[in-house]
Amino acid sequence: MDLTLVAILVALGAAGGFSAGLLGVGGGVLMFPLLYYVPPMLGIDRMDAKTVAAIVVSQVFFSTLTGGIAHFRSGRVQTRMAVIAGTISAITAFAGSVASQWASEGFLLVLFGVVTVIVVVMMLLPVPMLAKDTAVGDVSVSSLPLAVYSSLTGIVIGFLGAGNFIFVPILIYLLRVPTRAAIGSNLVVAIMSTASGFLGKLITGQIPLLATVLVVTGAVLGALAGERVHRRLSSQTLRRIYAALVALIAIRIWLTILGLDS
User: How far is Cα of residue 4 from the mean position of the Cα atoms in its chain?
Assistant: First the structure.
């Protein structure tokens, strides 16, 4: 592996890690298109979608671990909610990650495209009254809907190596959790769900070791920087950045699906 590719992978990992610390999305929603599209733009052979998904789930696990610890120390994690959602999504993510070895590249791209569109639409909705910023300790979420949403999110994570970005809008708009508590708690959920997704891809031999180590190194550093910036931004600004980021990614993915990219 030449130095140019090493630098690219570390830089892309840092970008994904930064989004994890800033927005609580694990970085997967950004890392999948970055790893899939950027190397070919720089004259490097494109990695297939399965390899990208395997690297992404590894990067997401380590960046969420770093960012999650930082948010937990700052009091932005609702522990009960995070543990329930994390446990359930971890189980379904493992199942999805094992099943992903039989999924086609086209299926993975369409799944990613559909999910990003759903997230963008949700993030453009008015914020529910109960989702305003309140004390994390006052947050209460019903177990049954939390379990259902966690199961669906875990399956997507298992297939794509990314999917925790779905859970932030679910927490805010469907379960009415305050923005900062949703972001912080989602990182803890991501640690648990991507740990099993990472294990599933590891034992099935889908993870390229060297490329993954380089991406993860950048991700850990980026996550620490992202959490520091998070402290300085308002909840409304964070939601707007979240929606804009996912919208750009959705457009790029659908251009590929429809055969309109160059």
Answer: 26
Phi and psi torsions of 238, nearest 5°: -60, -40
Distance between CA 27 and CA 14 in Å, rounded? 9
Ramachandran class of 24: left when φ > 0, alpha when ψ lies in -120 to 50, beta otherwise: left
Token pair listed for 73: 């120390």
What are the structure tokens assigned to 126, written together?
């008015």
For 112-145, what is each residue's pLDDT tens digit?
899 889 988 888 888 776 655 555 666 778 889 9
Residue type, 105: E
Domain ranges within the chain, ordered by starting residue: 3-257
Tokens (6 digits) for 238: 């964070």
Separation of alpha carbons 169 and 189, rounded Å: 14
Residues across the chain: 262
DSSP letters, 85-130, are HHHHHHHHHHHHHHHGGG--HHHHHHHHHHHHHHHHHHHTSPPPGG
pTM of the model: 0.73
